[in-house]
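#help-structures
NK: newbie question, is this the right format to request a structure? protein is Chitin-binding type-2 domain-containing protein
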Amino acid sequence: MKTTTSAVKPTRKPNLRCPEPYGIFEHPTDCHSFMHCAHNIPYVMRCPPTTFFNDEIKVCDHMWNAPNTCK
């Protein structure tokens, strides 16, 4: 009996880029996360359960304030 193996390709994460060197910015694909940028390096932060990142006020906010695309 001959066995073979195949490599599994890792799932690619979105290529995140900071819009500015420093600051807090919305995540481009996940409304429950945001990016904290320092020296142009994005650090992805996750909001607590049942909240979303409100880019207008730069904080995790209640879901009843979320846009329909995030609910």
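mod (FA): yep, format's fine, and the tokens are attached above. The chain has a mean pLDDT of 86.
NK: thank you!
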